[in-house]
Amino acid sequence: xxxxxxxxxxxxxxxxxxxSFNHYMLAEVWPAGFCQTQTCIKQVNKFIIHGLWPQGVDPxxxxxxxxxxxxxxxxxxxxxxxxxxxxxxxxxxxxxxDKHGSCSMLEQNEYFTAASTIYRKKSIIKILNAKGIGNTxxxxxxxxxxxxxxxxxxxxVKAQLYCDTQHNLVEVxxxxxxxxxxxxxxxxxxxxxCPETMV
Length: 199
Hints:
Layout: H1 2-15, E1 23-29, H2 31-34, E2 48-55, H3 71-80, H4 89-99, H5 108-121, H6 124-130, E3 142-143, H7 144-155, E4 160-163, E5 169-176, E6 184-185, E7 197-198
Antiparallel strand pairs: 1-2, 1-5, 3-7, 4-5, 5-6
Helix pairs in contact: 3-5
């Protein structure tokens, strides 16, 4: 009887779609663009994590749980995954865990460690600087094609750019396989929100 109950629970879990996703997308925020239309309380001059999002999964059935992170993980997140608004970092992390992380089939500390590991593999700012695109690029008119080419050369894959309605670059989104070592892969979705000339 106990075995039958376990099988029923397992089948229900699998049918819910939890964990059955294709790949990850790491969204990195550019604060100078984000803060053009948002009230920010921090000045950060580098890309930081917005979220690590399983792709191809409906997040609605994923369970919500309280955060219980190791101190070593928190220290990394305080550098890599900051909240730019008045929202506390831990509140931001909890929202991302409930909406995306809980669908990843990873334990909380594994999920957030994976996000930091992927984020620290390569620096977008260093890649852009190597292509002659400086840290002040948001204040300048910038060709989307030139920016996408710099990212593609640096990561070896096509990324997705996200811009706000005022054409400010807000995020660079990178895709990768869902298993370690989290190799980069092309993002299938186009950078539809960004015009040919960004600011």
